[in-house]
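Async update (no meeting this week)

Hi team, since we skipped the sync, here's where things stand on the single-chain job. The sequence we agreed to prioritize is pasted below, unchanged from the tracker. I ran it this morning and attached the output directly underneath so nobody has to dig for it. Comments welcome in thread, and please keep replies under the output.
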Amino acid sequence: KGVPVKKIQDVRGTVYLTVPAGRAPGGMVTVTLPGCTRQVSARADNELKTGTAVVISENLGGGSFLVVKS
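Output:
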């Protein structure tokens, strides 16, 4: 069962797999939603290392989200 995109926007999370710079694929972020925890595909303008606190700022489509350091 998928999580509605609206519920993921503006949610805080933690980098699970380092998010490469330049919006390159490969990063993952753990987000906590009401009643569940999910890993989502993440991209960023600047590299974000594992453990960095982030905020989901934009839905990039295709299941990827833009994150920024919180």
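Quick observations from my side:
The longest helix spans residues 5-8.
The first strand starts at residue 12 and ends at 17.
Reply here if anything looks off.
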